[in-house]
Design brief:
The structure holds 2 protein chains of 2 kinds. Chain A is mainly alpha-helical. Chain A contains 15 helices and no strands. Chain A has a single domain, classed as MetI-like (MetI-like fold). Helix content of chain A is about 75%, strand content about 0%. Chain A is globular and about 75 Å long. By secondary structure, chain B is mostly helical. Chain B has 2 domains: about 40 residues, no CATH class; about 240 residues, MetI-like fold (Orthogonal Bundle). In chain B, about 70% of the residues lie in helices and about 0% in strands. Chain B is built from 16 helices and 2 strands. A two-stranded antiparallel sheet of chain B has the order 1-2. In chain B, a hairpin with a 3-residue loop joins β1 and β2. The longest helix of chain B has about 35 residues. Classes of the chains: A mainly alpha, B mainly alpha. At the A-B interface, α1, α2, α4, α5 and α6 of A face α1, α3, α4, α6 and α7 of B.
């Protein structure tokens, strides 16, 4: 997708006449300065986290040099503390986060791909009404559902289990909407009809003809749902009371509460929260950097209708 | 981009008209069978939709009609909970806070993300590509972690802000104090989301046919005029989408204040936003009936606010047409 993006982009500079270009120079400097300021603003917290992760408690609380490395390089000692603290609960939380994000994200994507295809390529009674309902539901604030879902699931005895986090994460009306918009256009009816004429059944047509054409939108929806579940805080906070089931977000929130409630005696816990926060942001940053050619185009899908 | 971009011109309405291929490929019987197959594709989503959206909403509404008293047990109380909610200063102050917060936050966020996207769209240097990724980076960071990080940066004991002010022998403002918490949270949320919005606008800008700019240039338009008169109107539907996302997100504000509450020395109260209030009613005071009424009322408020907004901007396109 990036390739096509680059192609549609204007050939800036390349074919410009010289007087125009010299006139552009000072503005380019200002534009680049503006970008540098923005980058510094957006990176300062991450930079601070990186630097603070390498410090021991005395350096961290030294009162100076918060944005530069301390006397000792303590990253590995901090990591070792992090992974062994309280019976290794951090690793357990990390594992839980991966489980919730992958199962919730993959599940929501499968459901969205099927439903998007159904809405885009079949005409049946109630289709327009169902789709209007779906569009309306995009506007329902999902956190307003958390407490009612909690009460509902507690009647079924499902709260404080992994299902209480995974099952509600499968709901992704926006994912269905994105898939429908994309499929309506990227999968031509003529291709599907040709496959049917060749004798392939509806499901075989879906898997062999339609599915491969959906890849860019599919990866975008997958990434969005994984990020949504990975970052979710309200839902697991409400559903789970056993700390062994916590995802990383709720776990670090718990640590921060513990650390601030016994102020002073918890210097080591603050170090763990800092290095724990650093470790927890690495997987998604790596995923976004490696998959950028897919999501950069895909994220604009919803707005291009 | 190409297949998606062309949706703009050949949007769904003409598609529902009779298509030649359909007439060719099947009898009425076949079409009916195919319609049933359509339902099979939609069935898993329909199940999740009913179980985790319709059922909780209906159940919340049902619960909100009852009141649980120590002496009386659970009794039907009609709309009493809603009357209570809309006269409860805790709820009303929370709503007032998120409304004020949206009014300030959304224009700030839009301005930052739009300015960044316009600049990035005009440059093709390596620095510009690098900046694009770095500005987007906070989106990959969970809101909990983002809030924790800013909490550290604001910290008077080990944050850099205090250290910077100490160089001039001054006392840094504590950005989570009573007077500053609005600005403190504004900064956290802008940092978290501006990059995501920037990417959406940027992608829309990249989808514009460049020959339009050439035409504008021939007419003597300069960079500013092209940006304001050509580019911004052409990405209006992306801007509307972002506004809707930001509005829905901000009205249900929860994570950042909830995470920062322990380090804010009491500024962030248990009724700071409607969602925090509902959470505390349910999990600290076990008032599930009243909490359901608050949740439901908040849901209705958000839905109506967004719907009015979408209706007002429907000419610009986006979700509803």
């Amino acid at each position: 997708m990036t390739e096509t993006l680059e192609k549609t982009a204007r050939p800036v500079d390349a074919g410009r006449s010289t007087p125009l270009r010299t006139a552009r120079k000072p503005r380019n400097v200002i534009a680049h300065l503006f970008l540098v300021v923005l980058v510094i603003y957006f990176l300062v917290p991450v930079w601070w986290l990186l630097v603070a992760s390498t410090k021991n408690a005395p350096d961290l609380f030294a009162g100076t040099g918060a944005l530069w490395f301390g006397k000792d390089f303590n990253l590995f000692a901090n990591l070792a503390d992090l992974f062994t603290y309280n019976g290794g609960e951090y690793l357990q939380w990390l594992g839980n986060s991966v489980l919730y994000a992958v199962s919730g994200g993959v599940g929501a994507t499968v459901i969205a791909v099927l439903a998007g295809y159904g809405f885009a390529k079949y005409r049946f009674r109630g289709r327009n009404f169902t789709f209007a309902l779906l569009l309306g539901s995009v506007m329902v604030p999902l956190t307003a559902l958390v407490i009612p879902t909690f009460v509902l699931l507690s009647n079924l005895g499902l709260t404080d289990t992994i299902w209480a986090v995974i099952l509600p994460s499968l709901l992704s009306p926006f994912g269905v909407y994105l898939m429908r918009v994309y499929i309506a256009d990227a999968v031509p009816d003529e291709l599907l009809d040709a496959s049917r004429v060749d004798g392939a059944g509806e499901f075989r047509t879906f898997f062999t003809v339609a599915l491969p054409l959906m890849r860019p939108a599919l990866i975008t929806v997958l990434l969005l749902s994984i990020v949504g579940t990975w970052n979710n805080y309200f839902l697991p906070l409400a559903m789970l009371s056993t700390s062994k089931l916590y995802p990383i977000t709720v776990g670090l929130g718990l640590w921060s509460q513990l650390a601030s409630s016994n102020n002073g005696g918890s210097h080591s816990l603050w170090s763990l929260i800092i290095v724990g926060a650093l470790v927890s942001i690495i997987p998604l940053i790596v995923a976004f950097l490696t998959l950028q050619k897919y999501w950069q185009g895909g994220l604009s899908l919803g707005s291009l209708k | 981009m190409a297949p998606v971009g062309s949706t703009t011109t050949t949007a769904s309405p003409p598609r529902t008209a009779a298509r030649p291929s359909r007439a060719r490929s099947g009898s009425a019987k076949m079409l009916a069978r195919r319609g049933r197959t359509g339902w099979i594709f939609i069935a898993p989503f329909a199940a999740v939709f009913v179980l985790f959206l319709v059922a909780p909403l209906a159940y919340a509404f049902y619960l909100s009609l009852f009141t649980k008293g120590l002496a009386t047990g659970t009794v039907f109380s009609g709309i009493d909970n809603y009357v209570k909610a809309f006269t409860d200063p805790s709820f009303l102050n929370g709503v007032w806070f998120v409304v004020r917060f949206s009014i300030v936050l959304i224009p700030v966020q839009m301005l930052v993300s739009l300015a960044a996207a316009l600049v990035l769209d005009a440059l093709t240097t390596r620095l510009a590509r690098f900046s694009r990724l770095m500005i987007f980076l906070p989106y990959a960071i969970p809101a909990v972690i983002g809030a924790l990080m800013w909490g550290f940066l604001y910290s008077p004991t080990f944050g850099p802000l205090q250290q910077l002010f100490s160089l001039f022998n001054a006392q840094a403002p504590f950005l989570l104090s009573q007077g500053n918490v609005f600005a403190g949270l504004l900064n956290v949320v802008t940092w978290q989301w501006a990059g995501y919005y920037m990417i959406i606008i940027f992608a829309a800008l990249q989808g514009i046919d460049p020959s339009i700019y050439e035409a504008a240039k021939l007419d003597g338009a300069n960079w500013w005029q092209v940006a304001i008169r050509v580019k911004i109107p052409l990405v209006a539907s992306a801007l509307v989408l972002i506004l809707v996302f930001a509005l829905i997100g901000t009205l249900q504000f929860f994570t950042e204040p909830q995470v920062l509450a322990p380090v804010a020395n009491g500024t962030i109260t248990p009724d700071f936003t409607p969602n925090i209030y509902a959470f505390n009613l349910a999990f600290s005071y076990a008032q599930f009936n009243y909490a359901s009424a608050i949740s439901f009322a908040l849901g209705i408020v958000v839905f109506i606010a967004v719907y009015i907004f979408m209706f007002a901007t429907r000419k610009r396109g986006s979700l509803l047409k």
